[in-house]
Specification:
The chain is of the alpha/beta class. It contains 11 helices and 12 strands. The structure holds ligand PBG. Ligand PBG binds next to helix 6.
Length: 324
C-alpha cells in the first residue's frame, strides 16, 4: 500500500519547491519569433486575424528585431509579402526580393540575431500554391529548382539558416547540394518535415495573402490522420541532410513530436502556428481564458512533448512573463 508512505502532494506545497522539481523549463533561448516583411517604409500594418502581429517594412523590421534580440530571443524567421506575384514566384528568388533586402538590413543592424528564412513559393505565386503548377497539378521536380534558387539567394543575402516549408519530395537534398556548391556548406537546414495540411494556417494566409486560388494543399502537405508517415518524412529529410527537423502545427500534433523525440537524435523544432495563436488571443479577448497562463501552458506542453526549439508568435510574451 503506497499511501500513506507516498504523498506526491509533499513536493507541491510551495512555488519554490515546485520549481525545484520541475521537469520542464521554458526559456526564451529556445524560441524563434516569426515576422512578416512588406515593401515600403514606415509601414506597420496590423494583421487583422493575428492581433499584435504586423506586416513591417524593412526599416521598422530592423527596429523590431533589435527589441526582439534585447529580450533574449535568439532567432527570427522571416516571411515576405512581395511587390508582385506571378506564376513562377520569381520574387521569391530575386536578389533584391523583399526577404533578401530584409535579411541584408537585419544582419547589418542586429548582427547577433539569427535570421532564418522560410523557403517556399506560396507567398510569391499568383495561384498561391507552394510549387510550379502544370496542368492543374503541382510539379514536384520543377519546383525543386526554384526552391534551391530561393534558398541560395537568401543565404547570399546573409541568412543564417534556411527552412523549406513547401513539402516537395527531395527538396532538402536539392537545397543542400545547391548551398554546398555555392560555398555554403556551413549553413544549416531546418526542414519542415512533418507539415500537415492544416486548418490552423488560416490567419497566416490572411497575413501573407497566400491562400491557394484553386484546390488545396493536400497533394503535398500531410494528412492529419497520419503518424507513421510523419516519421518516414522526418527520416527522409535527415537522410537528405536536414540539421533540424520540424513538426507543424504543434499542439494538435504533440504525439508526433513525442514519437520523433524518441526515434531521432537531431534537434526537433515545433511551430505553434497562426491559428493556435489566434484561438488563444480570441478567447482571451472574450474573457473566456487567461491569456498569459494558457499561452505558457501550451508552450510548456510542446516543450514537454520533446521540442527543443519552438517557433511562436508569443515569443515576446514569454520573455515578458519569464521576467527578461
Ligand atoms: C508556407 C508556410 C505557411 C506557414 C508557414 N510557412 C502557410 C501554409 O502552408 O499555408 C504557416 C504558418 C502559420 O500558420 O503560422 N510558406
Amino acid at each position: 500500500m503506497p499511501f500513506p508512505t507516498h504523498r506526491p502532494r509533499r513536493l507541491r506545497r510551495s512555488e519554490t519547491l515546485r520549481q525545484l522539481v520541475s521537469e520542464t523549463r521554458l526559456s526564451t533561448r529556445a524560441l524563434v519569433y516569426p515576422m512578416f516583411v512588406c515593401p515600403g517604409s514606415k509601414v506597420r500594418d496590423e494583421i487583422g486575424s493575428m492581433p499584435g502581429n504586423f506586416r513591417l517594412s524593412v526599416d521598422l523590421l530592423v527596429e523590431e528585431c533589435k527589441s526582439v534580440a534585447n529580450l533574449g530571443i535568439p532567432a527570427v524567421i522571416l516571411f515576405g509579402i512581395p511587390e508582385q506575384k506571378d506564376e513562377m514566384g520569381t520574387s521569391a528568388y530575386a536578389a533584391d526580393g523583399i526577404v533578401q533586402r530584409a535579411v541584408r538590413a537585419v544582419k547589418k543592424g542586429v548582427p547577433d540575431l539569427l535570421v532564418i528564412c522560410d523557403v517556399c513559393l506560396d507567398e510569391y505565386t499568383s495561384h498561391g500554391h507552394c510549387g510550379v503548377v502544370r496542368d492543374g497539378e503541382i510539379d514536384n521536380d520543377a519546383t525543386l529548382e526554384l526552391l534551391a534558387r530561393t534558398a541560395k539567394s537568401q543565404v547570399l543575402a546573409g541568412a543564417d539558416m534556411v527552412a523549406p516549408s513547401d513539402m516537395m519530395d527531395g527538396r532538402v537534398g536539392r537545397i543542400r547540394r545547391e548551398l554546398d556548391r555555392a560555398g555554403f556548406a556551413h549553413i544549416p537546414i531546418l526542414a519542415y518535415s512533418a507539415k500537415y495540411a492544416s486548418g490552423f494556417y488560416g490567419p497566416f494566409r490572411e497575413a501573407a495573402d497566400s491562400a491557394p486560388k484553386f484546390g488545396d494543399r493536400r497533394s503535398y502537405q500531410m494528412d492529419p490522420a497520419n503518424q507513421r508517415e510523419a516519421l518516414r518524412e522526418i527520416a527522409l529529410d535527415i537522410d537528405e541532410g536536414a540539421d533540424i527537423i520540424m513538426v507543424k502545427p504543434a499542439l494538435p500534433y504533440l504525439d508526433v513530436i513525442a514519437l520523433a523525440r524518441r526515434q531521432f537524435d537531431v534537434p526537433i523544432a515545433a511551430y505553434q502556428v497562426s491559428g493556435e495563436f489566434s484561438m488563444i488571443e480570441a478567447a482571451a479577448r472574450k474573457g473566456w481564458i487567461d491569456r498569459d497562463r494558457v499561452l505558457m501552458e501550451t508552450l510548456l506542453s510542446i516543450h514537454r512533448a520533446g521540442a527543443d526549439v519552438i517557433l511562436t508568435y508569443f515569443a515576446k510574451d514569454v520573455a515578458r512573463l519569464l521576467g527578461v
